[in-house]
Amino acid sequence: MEQLEPVQRAMVVAPHPDDAEFGCAGTVAKLTKAGKEVFYVIATNGNKGGRDTDMSATYLREERRLEQEAAAAAVGVSEVVFLDFGDGELEDDHEFRRALVHQIRRLQPDIVFTTDPFRSSFYIHRDHRMTGLVTIDAVFPYARDRLHYPEDIEAGLSGHNVDEVFFWGSEAPDTFINIEEVIDSKIESLKAHKSQLSDWGQGENPIPFEDMVKKMSHRTSTQNNLPFEYAESFRKFGIRRTWDDT
Questions:
Q1: How many alpha carbons lie under 13 Å from residue 174 in its C-beta half-sphere?
Q2: Which residues, 6+ apart, have CB-to-CB distance to 138 below 8 Å?
Q3: Which stretches in the chain have pLDDT values below 70?
């Protein structure tokens, strides 16, 4: 946990329901277990993320909200905010950026977790790229500078400085969190997303879902020669260093 200190409040910006669980639910569980506050901001409603043909967009929107709330509760998240953009419809625009700036100013996190948009060696969903890119800009300079979206200031909020952004899904991680003691919480939070697991274990010799999560977390540890069994990895992006040194 020393890699995350000092921190009292953290905000997670996820493209879709279930992305936070894959990316950082173990770390979130450790933070809340240590008495820290964590808030989720879910950018899209996931209304197109269904594999079964009988899942309508309306069903997915409603069901995935309930699933996300259950998943967040499993790791002690204080609040879940749904921005409710359509799945696959995120843009690098003022509407999305304004919504994130508002939540940063309202929740005042010390650190922000989101998906790494700067990947080149394997595919990344467009919503993931947009979320990472817009989150960076929302964090700095937009949330800090009061003349960006002044309606927030007029409503009684103030500009806010985030110290660091932690990217999950990075090709070049530099921060590793031991999640051995909370791996079961990560699994429980992921299993809440039942609509996304409907076709799990359908093939030959299926691996149990719990074992798959542990295998992925263990691979993160072994690939980086870590002294613990299960890990989550991040690339740390220092925001406060950026402007303090200018």
A1: 7
A2: 97, 100, 101, 104
A3: 1-2, 50-54, 199-205, 240-246
Between 183-191 and 19-33, two packed helices, what is the crossing angle to 10 degrees? 140
Tell me what pLDDT residue 151 has: 97
Q: Interhelix angle for 209-223 vs 183-191, to 10°? A: 130
Number of domains in the chain: 1
- DSSP letters, 101-140, are HHHHHHH--SEEEEE-----SS---HHHHHHHHHHHHIII
Q: Indicate which CATH number applies to the domain containing 24.
A: 3.40.50.10320
Q: What is the largest CA-CA distance in the chain?
A: 59
Q: What is this structure's pTM?
A: 0.93
- The angle subtended at Cα 37 by Cα 36 and Cα 42, nearest 5°, is 140
Distance CA 171, CA 35 (A): 30
Domain range enclosing 143: 2-244
CA atoms lying within 13 Å on the CB side of residue 74: 25
Strands (E) in 45-187, as ranges, are: 79-85, 111-115, 164-168, 175-178
pLDDT score at 17: 95
